[in-house]
Amino acid sequence: MAALAACSSIDCPVENTVRTVYQVIDDDGAEISCADTVYVWSQRFDGQDTLLLNRAVGASQYSLPISSQRPADTLVWLVADTQHQFTLDTVVVEKEDLPHFESVDCATSFFHRIHRISTSHHGIDTIIINRSFVDYDSQTPHFYIRFKARH
Asked: Considering the entire predicted model, what is its pTM?
């Protein structure tokens, strides 16, 4: 009887959110906080825009969801400095969606393999892939992002 009870337990992860982490760095590659206000939008599968990050100020990391319905995500980054000057960048994350099976009792999830990232370089200086595999780990940055200096 005890063996039957052990086999029937559901082992779904409590936190099964798959997100990418962008770590803000300086010119030397050290982690810093961004004093500017950052907003990030994306386009949903139905074609509507959706706000992913709203008014992040003083953050050193940004955690953003990743889609499982297309080979590339296009993100629009709006950065506003303290003098209310704005820069707008388009970031494209090219990826492969990898179905991940936990159990028939668990919700469907996807992991991802990042192949390439690009940006328009208006306010963003550089984005570097640090970890190309995206899974439940939200501690290790997937990308290092460096913003251009403002004068």
From this structure: 0.87
Q: Are 63 and 38 in contact (CB under 8 A)?
A: no
Where does residue 44 rank: exposed (0-12), middle (13-18), buried (19+ CB within 10 A)? Answer: exposed
Which has the closest alpha carbon to 11: 103, 107, 109? 103
What are the tens digits of pLDDT across the range 92-131? Answer: 999 999 998 877 888 778 999 999 999 999 999 999 999 9
Q: Where are the domains of the chain?
A: 16-147
**Cβ atoms of 130 and 143 closer than 8 Å:** yes
Q: What is the pLDDT of residue 37?
A: 95
Question: How does strand 133-134 pair with strand 109-119?
Answer: antiparallel
Residue 101 CB contacts under 8 Å (≥ 6 apart), including other chains: none
Evaluate whether 125 touches 27 at the Cβ level (below 8 Å): no
Residues 120-143 pLDDT 10s: 999 999 999 999 999 999 899 999
HSE of 100, CA atoms in CB hemisphere, 13 A:
20
CA distances in angstroms from 93 to 7, 8, 131, 134, listed in the order given:
40, 40, 13, 12
